[in-house]
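Much of what follows relies on a compact textual record of a protein's fold. The record below shows the convention in full:
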Amino acid sequence: MLQALSIAATGMQTQETQIQVIANNLANASTVGFKVSNARFQDLVYVTPREAGTQSSQVSTVPTGESIGLGAKTAAVDQIFTEGELNETDNPLDLAIQGNGFFQVSLPDGSIAYTRDGSFRLDQNGRLVTLDGYAVLPGINIPQGAGTITIGADGTVSAQVNNQTVPTQVGQIQLVRFLNPAGLQPYGQNLYVQSEAAGSPQTGVAGQNGFGSITQGFLEMPNESTVQELVGLIEAQRAYEASSKAVQEADQMQGIANGLIR
């Protein structure tokens, strides 16, 4: 009975993790560039009192064994990097990536982070920065008093300087991709940092050699389906309730067994 209690408890723990993951997905239903997370589970080891094929007599063997699982565990919580829908904003500094790639930004400690959130703005020095003030890399500086800012599909940034009719190129935004983007470590603030599992960053020009293109005046919305998340939430709740019921039943059976002993 005690083993049944622990087995059922592992089921409650995994479903609690599932609910936490879904809750975070729903909380970020409006977060630009957010990538939905998905919890993955595995069964635990098995106790096998009798293996399949065990000799049952001199001339026969058992066709099936006797294996009892010890529950479940969380194997991983990974992020799904499919593309979200693009939302038009008409802000010339809002950028979206159509396809593969991340924007690069410089963190306060000098390290580099990566994001799909192209909600960029200009700081007091004319630098292109994130909403938290982190500079976009490579650095883009817009001259004081510049007019219309144009950002091409290849990341080329141009601005009308000194009332010139022909825009002047002031820089180019580069994209970065990873062999295994699911291995990136979430940092918060819509940012990711590199990990060994993600592989080395590969830098390139937007729209070339497999990199996505940049769309000006748009933002990428989350790639989640609220309906699917709510369905998953209900399923996780039902599974949690079933596991808790198993705990209660095992506890009652343990109580009956203890009563018989007394």
User: Anything to note?
Assistant: DSSP finds two helices and 21 strands in the chain. The first strand starts at residue 37 and ends at 43. The mean pLDDT is 90.
